[in-house]
Amino acid sequence: QRAAPWRAATAAALAMALGLALFAVRLPLLQERDAAPRLVLLAPQAALAGGQNARFVASLSADGTALVLRPLQALDLGGQRTLELWALPVHGAPRSLGLLALQGTTTVRRPALLRDAQAIAVSVEPAGGSPTGAPTGPVVSLGRLAG
User: Fold this and answer.
1) Torsion angle in degrees (nearest 10) through CA of 40, 109, 29, 144
2) I need a surface site. Which of 84, 92, 98, 113 has the fewest CB within 10 A?
3) DSSP 8-state assignment for residue 100
4) Which of the 8 DSSP states describes residue 47?
């Protein structure tokens, strides 16, 4: 009977420790979910055929795992060319994020490709995308993600 209070105190301490651990794990997740996405404007760097400027607005999720990109005007490349989106890391080569929709939105949900990116760029590529895995055409739009 003397051990009963100690058992109760131990059970209460264990329950409080588990509750605190659960709170500590969930708090960063709640903060990330409530954080607002960052908006990035990609400014024209060079004109497209016909004098078009490639202006885009991008929304980057607060946790950096999703990117939604939309052209500010419909773009026409004549079917022979396409636009490709690139992540520009602090160190290393550009990483392709995929081909862009010339009208409407493009969504990228590949967090590994966005990791450590300081900027994103859009280049003109042959139909189907870059044949080399690196930008081959002119960079027509650029936007900074950092700072």
Assistant:
1) -20
2) 92
3) P
4) B
